[in-house]
Specification:
single chain, alpha+beta, Alpha-Beta Plaits, 2 domains, four-stranded antiparallel sheet, 9 helices, about 70% helix, about 10% strand, elongated
Length: about 300
């Protein structure tokens, strides 16, 4: 496409926005409201995914070694565990280290456990992590069958519930976002369709004098892009300021816990950039879908 032709299309697209002021306002408002909802849902879902990923990474299998196992038996057990393909890492923790961990985890009340230092009832442990957290139950079942394993702990029952809840939450979020985007495309498509209908005679004349479909389509395509871009500006500003406020409050409230939001940068810039892209794409899509009918002359 020549530069002067593109300039002409650009000029026509901008003129159409100004010429159809109320329709432009309606389209931009539809995009603004929809993208604001999409942005909020995306922020919530992405942070839920971040939290779930952190929790999943903390899932581990604690393999309690039979007290009767010798050092050679322990090495043999480790070698057998390492043969399992889903294993990412395996770390040894002595019963002394385990007792210290228990005492530390109970804080002040844990001091009562110091009495067991002379006669430690705990067992040596192999701490196993899988490459994929969802393989935890399967790997634990395999380890449980090995020799010199006293028992295996990984939060049986709770881990499965966690993975199930995370999966359901992600799927619901995807469905909601897809529904909102479809609604935005439908609203923009119908709004632009009204604008195009008012200019149907002009389009028919252009077709009759030999204008190509793309020559006619480009101004409307750029108009849809502008509508999407303008509609994404307010959600972008609101989400940036709201996320900053929410993050500062929650960081102070949940400091030192696993409950933490994604860092403001680069997350918020990635999110707002995605909103602008979505706005532009659904605006262009709405224009393309609206004008198809009027190009059949």
């Amino acid at each position: 496409m020549k530069a002067n032709t593109f300039t002409r299309h650009l000029r026509e697209g901008v003129k159409s926005l100004a010429r159809n002021g109320w329709m432009t306002f309606a389209s931009v408002s539809a995009v603004t409201i929809t993208l604001l909802l999409v942005g909020v849902f995306l922020a919530v879902i992405m942070n839920m995914n971040h939290f779930a990923s952190k929790v999943e990474k903390d899932v581990e299998i604690r393999v309690h070694i039979d007290p009767a196992a010798s050092k050679e038996d322990q090495k043999a057990l480790k070698a057998n565990i390492e043969k399992i393909s889903q294993i990412e890492s395996i770390k040894y923790s002595s019963k002394e280290a385990e007792l210290k961990r228990v005492i530390k985890s109970f804080g002040d009340t844990g001091k009562s456990f110091e009495l067991f230092e002379q006669d430690n009832p705990l067992k040596d442990v192999y701490i196993v992590k899988t490459k994929q957290p969802r393989d935890t139950a399967n790997v634990a079942a395999k380890i449980e069958k090995l020799n010199y394993v006293s028992n295996v702990q990984y939060g049986k029952g709770e881990v499965e519930k966690l993975f199930s809840t995370v999966k359901v939450g992600r799927n619901i979020g995807i469905v909601l976002i897809a529904g909102l985007l479809f609604t935005a495309m439908f609203l923009i498509s119908n709004t632009i369709k009204i604008t195009i209908y008012a200019r149907r005679t002009e389009i028919e004349i252009m077709k009759l004098v030999g204008a190509t479909n793309w020559f006619i389509r480009w101004p409307f395509l750029l108009e849809g892009l502008f509508l999407g871009f303008l509609g994404s500006l307010l959600p972008m500003v609101l989400i940036m300021s709201a996320y900053s406020s929410v993050q500062s409050v929650l960081q102070e409230k949940f400091a030192g816990t696993i409950f933490e939001l994604l860092p403001y940068s680069p997350f918020i810039f990635q999110l707002t950039g995605l909103l602008i892209l979505i706005g532009c794409l659904i605006g262009m899509w709405g224009s393309v879908m609206s004008i198809r009918k009027f190009l059949k002359v």
